[in-house]
Amino acid sequence: MTASEAAIRPAVADDIPRLHDLVERAYRGDSARQGWTHEADLITGDRTSASELLATLNDPDNAVLVADRGDALIGTVTVTRVSGDRCYLGMLAVDPRLQASGLGRRLVAAAEDAARRTFAARIMEMTVIDARAELVDWYLRLGYARTGETRMLEGDAGRLLPMQVLARSL
């Protein structure tokens, strides 16, 4: 089964160990550098923890989706209800070896569908580290637009990283 044939489904508690491993490999450390969407050169340390993932999974204001290839979880995305008609797309991660396979686009589309169906959302927003211009451009190609808003993310040693807020009507 290829990345494009992977089943996208809601995550379950039994997925947490594999999900945690996937997120860490995609965002941080040397393994993340195999892909193009990582934060490894900007932020060190863990991206999340198994307990944080479980809390997210158990929160009714979240929908955690995974791309399951049968032998491995190869992608994930989280949708969070922000307000009545607005959701937040977060923690999009694709196995670094499978990035640029189309799976990220499929996960974003599945997240948008989940936002509409589960939370009756009409707007999806996200934040992207400003220094990741190629990632911002990728989301712009998917139909997201800059809102002009900037939020700050605390990086290493208290350094603040500006993040662009992008949004799209669903």
Backbone shape: globular
How would you write the strand order of the largest sheet? 1-2-3-4-5-7-6
Q: On the 0-100 scale, what is the average pLDDT?
A: 85
Order of helices and strands: EHHHEEEHEHEE
- Straight-line N-to-C gap: 30 Å
How many DSSP helices? Answer: 5
Alpha carbon gyration radius: 15 Å
User: SS-based structural class?
Assistant: alpha+beta
Unreliable segments of 5+ consecutive residues: 29-36
The amount of beta strand, in percent, is 25-35%
Describe this structure in words.
This protein is an alpha+beta fold and 170 residues long. The protein has helices at residues 16-27, 29-32, 50-58, 103-119, 133-141; strands at residues 7-10, 62-68, 73-83, 86-94, 123-129, 145-154, 160-169. Strands 1-2-3-4-5-7-6 form a seven-stranded mixed sheet, with helices on both faces. The longest helix has 17 residues, at 103-119. It is globular. It starts with 6 loop residues before the first strand and ends with a strand. 34% of the residues are buried.
Key terms for this structure?
alpha+beta, 7 strands, seven-stranded mixed sheet, 170 residues
Report a brief summary of the structure.
With 170 residues, the protein is an alpha+beta fold. Helices cover 30% and strands 34% of the residues.
Task: Set down the secondary structure blueprint.
Elements lengths: L6 E4 L5 H12 L1 H4 L17 H9 L3 E7 L4 E11 L2 E9 L8 H17 L3 E7 L3 H9 L3 E10 L5 E10 L1
Parallel strand pairs: 4-5
Antiparallel strand pairs: 1-2, 2-3, 3-4, 5-7, 6-7
